[in-house]
Amino acid sequence: MSGYLTTHVLDTAKGCPAKGIRIVLYRLSDGERTQITETVTNDDGRTDSPILPGDAFQTGSYELVFFAGDYLRATGQAGDDPLFLDQVPIRFGMSDAAAHYHVPLLLSPYGYSTYRGS
Q: Among 58, 66, 59, 61, which residue's Cα sits nearest to residue 41?
Protein backbone atom coordinates (compact mmCIF):
# COMPACT_ATOMS: atom_id res chain seq x y z
CA MET A 1 0.00 0.00 0.00
CA SER A 2 1.32 3.44 -0.84
CA GLY A 3 0.90 6.53 1.28
CA TYR A 4 -1.55 9.35 0.72
CA LEU A 5 -2.40 12.81 2.09
CA THR A 6 -5.74 14.14 3.32
CA THR A 7 -6.84 17.37 4.98
CA HIS A 8 -9.91 19.07 6.36
CA VAL A 9 -10.80 22.47 7.80
CA LEU A 10 -12.93 23.16 10.86
CA ASP A 11 -14.21 26.64 11.70
CA THR A 12 -13.62 26.75 15.45
CA ALA A 13 -15.31 30.16 15.83
CA LYS A 14 -18.58 28.91 14.37
CA GLY A 15 -18.20 25.30 15.49
CA CYS A 16 -18.70 23.74 12.07
CA PRO A 17 -16.86 22.41 9.01
CA ALA A 18 -15.44 25.12 6.75
CA LYS A 19 -17.06 24.68 3.34
CA GLY A 20 -15.59 26.25 0.21
CA ILE A 21 -11.99 26.86 1.27
CA ARG A 22 -9.56 26.76 -1.63
CA ILE A 23 -6.43 24.71 -0.90
CA VAL A 24 -3.26 24.48 -2.98
CA LEU A 25 -0.63 21.77 -2.44
CA TYR A 26 3.01 22.41 -3.33
CA ARG A 27 6.03 20.11 -3.30
CA LEU A 28 9.22 21.73 -1.95
CA SER A 29 12.54 20.61 -3.39
CA ASP A 30 15.94 22.26 -3.88
CA GLY A 31 14.58 25.69 -2.97
CA GLU A 32 11.78 25.39 -5.52
CA ARG A 33 8.04 25.27 -4.87
CA THR A 34 6.04 23.30 -7.46
CA GLN A 35 2.25 23.27 -7.45
CA ILE A 36 0.89 19.71 -7.36
CA THR A 37 -2.86 20.25 -7.13
CA GLU A 38 -5.65 22.57 -6.11
CA THR A 39 -9.01 21.72 -4.54
CA VAL A 40 -11.89 23.13 -2.48
CA THR A 41 -13.40 21.81 0.74
CA ASN A 42 -16.88 20.26 0.59
CA ASP A 43 -19.86 20.56 2.98
CA ASP A 44 -17.96 18.48 5.55
CA GLY A 45 -14.86 20.73 5.37
CA ARG A 46 -12.97 17.91 3.63
CA THR A 47 -11.78 17.34 0.11
CA ASP A 48 -13.78 14.87 -1.99
CA SER A 49 -10.71 12.66 -2.40
CA PRO A 50 -7.18 12.59 -0.97
CA ILE A 51 -5.37 15.80 -1.86
CA LEU A 52 -2.37 13.61 -2.73
CA PRO A 53 -3.59 10.11 -3.65
CA GLY A 54 -1.48 6.97 -3.48
CA ASP A 55 -0.66 6.88 -7.19
CA ALA A 56 0.94 10.36 -6.94
CA PHE A 57 2.41 10.06 -3.43
CA GLN A 58 6.10 10.72 -2.84
CA THR A 59 7.93 11.31 0.40
CA GLY A 60 9.42 14.75 0.84
CA SER A 61 8.63 18.28 1.95
CA TYR A 62 5.30 19.90 1.11
CA GLU A 63 3.25 23.02 1.71
CA LEU A 64 -0.52 23.33 1.94
CA VAL A 65 -1.85 26.86 1.44
CA PHE A 66 -5.36 27.44 2.77
CA PHE A 67 -7.10 30.53 1.35
CA ALA A 68 -8.78 31.35 4.65
CA GLY A 69 -9.41 35.02 3.89
CA ASP A 70 -11.88 34.26 1.12
CA TYR A 71 -13.79 31.97 3.48
CA LEU A 72 -13.74 34.49 6.34
CA ARG A 73 -15.06 37.22 4.04
CA ALA A 74 -17.81 34.95 2.69
CA THR A 75 -18.95 34.00 6.20
CA GLY A 76 -18.90 37.56 7.58
CA GLN A 77 -15.97 36.90 9.93
CA ALA A 78 -13.27 38.86 8.12
CA GLY A 79 -13.12 42.10 10.07
CA ASP A 80 -11.29 45.10 8.66
CA ASP A 81 -8.77 45.01 5.83
CA PRO A 82 -6.07 43.98 5.88
CA LEU A 83 -7.19 40.68 7.34
CA PHE A 84 -5.25 39.25 10.24
CA LEU A 85 -5.34 35.83 8.49
CA ASP A 86 -5.59 35.57 4.74
CA GLN A 87 -3.51 32.76 3.28
CA VAL A 88 -2.43 30.14 5.82
CA PRO A 89 0.65 28.11 4.72
CA ILE A 90 1.55 24.89 6.49
CA ARG A 91 4.92 23.31 5.66
CA PHE A 92 5.45 19.69 6.65
CA GLY A 93 7.39 16.57 5.72
CA MET A 94 6.27 13.06 4.84
CA SER A 95 8.92 10.38 5.32
CA ASP A 96 6.96 7.10 5.34
CA ALA A 97 6.06 5.94 1.82
CA ALA A 98 3.25 3.71 3.13
CA ALA A 99 1.61 6.06 5.66
CA HIS A 100 -1.62 8.02 5.62
CA TYR A 101 -0.76 11.63 6.44
CA HIS A 102 -3.61 13.87 7.57
CA VAL A 103 -2.97 17.61 8.02
CA PRO A 104 -6.08 19.40 9.28
CA LEU A 105 -6.57 23.10 9.88
CA LEU A 106 -8.56 24.45 12.84
CA LEU A 107 -9.45 28.01 11.87
CA SER A 108 -10.89 31.16 13.42
CA PRO A 109 -10.58 34.79 12.26
CA TYR A 110 -7.63 35.47 14.59
CA GLY A 111 -5.91 32.14 15.00
CA TYR A 112 -5.34 28.65 13.69
CA SER A 113 -3.72 25.37 14.64
CA THR A 114 -2.78 22.15 12.95
CA TYR A 115 -1.49 18.71 13.88
CA ARG A 116 -0.74 15.36 12.32
CA GLY A 117 -4.08 13.64 12.38
CA SER A 118 -5.12 10.12 11.58
A: 66
How far does the chain reach from its first CA to its final CA, in angstroms?
A: 16
Nearest to 21 by CA among 13, 29, 9, 31: 9
Local confidence band at 1 (pLDDT 50, 70, 90 cut-offs): low
The DSSP annotation for 48-86 comes to SS-SB-GGG---EEEEEEEEHHHHHHHTT---SSSPS-S
User: Angle at Cα 93 formed by Cα 56 and Cα 33, nearest 5°?
Assistant: 70
For the whole prediction, is pTM greater than 0.85? yes
CA distance 116 to 118: 7
The Cα-based distances of 114 to 2, 45, 100, 118 in angstroms read 24, 14, 16, 12
Element (H, E) at 96: none
